[in-house]
């Protein structure tokens, strides 16, 4: 089942196949953004279910990373509506919103302190003092990092490899118990083993909360995602179940992109 770019922000289904749950966790209606007089995003409407991985794909410069930054209000000049769990993100305190919506970037960002302190860095000061060792162990296990660092929690985080640092960033995001995760090419700079470990961890996490995953790797998108959103030139071209999108895309632009990894959406 493929969905058009003009989707309203209401749950939809077709036949036996559903692309969204009865209560979508994230809903965007006609989201547009202009920066320095240039249209970066144009009236994007989409909604996502409460669990699973949605791959956000498109050529370089399509607006994928910008869209993520609008969702957690790193870009705040957009027009339209973005709701998380039925609540407008504009009506949510920014700090609270970013605890609810975790963001894992392409390059891991660790702080100049211990591994343990990095895990709890995002918690309020009072909460950091009372966090249990068991809670730290649990999120490090979820991030597939515990066995590698269980005897090193007081070591500096910058002693970890890049792949380990990225999993540490994931553990830090999970410590905040987010209701949604945004992932901006989190494995593109990693070796295959680290990539596979993060993919496995995130696929497990996606059974509990939804993930929106930007990737330029179409094979990765096939491998990890239940749904695909394809944008080009700041516009939503097609969104569909992953199996349908990769086997029988409806739009010419989608077919062109899948074949050549480029498209002309003007």
Could you walk me through the main structural features you see in this protein, from its secondary elements to its overall organization?
The chain contains 11 helices and 13 strands. It is of the alpha/beta class and 266 residues long. It has one domain: Rossmann fold (3-Layer(aba) Sandwich), CATH 3.40.50.300. Strands 1-13-12-6-11-10-9 form a 7-stranded mixed sheet, sandwiched between helices. The longest helix is centred in the middle third of the chain and has 14 residues, at 162-175. The radius of gyration is 19 Å and the shape is globular.
Main sheet characteristics: 7 strands, mixed
Under the CATH scheme, the architecture is: 3-Layer(aba) Sandwich
CATH topology: Rossmann fold
User: Which residue ranges are poorly predicted, with pLDDT under 50 across at least 5 consecutive positions?
Assistant: 1-8, 10-22
**Which percent range fits the helix content?**
25-40%
Name of the top-level CATH class: Alpha Beta
Q: For the record, what is the CATH homologous superfamily label? A: P-loop containing nucleotide triphosphate hydrolases
Number of domains: 1
Order of helices and strands: EEEEEEHEEHEHHHHHEHEHEEHH
Which overall shape is indicated by the principal axes computed on the Cα atoms? globular
Output the number of helix runs. 11
Q: Strand tally, please?
A: 13
Q: Beta-sheet strand percentage? A: 25-35%
Distance between the termini: 25 Å
Based on helices, strands and strand pairing, what is the structural class?
alpha/beta
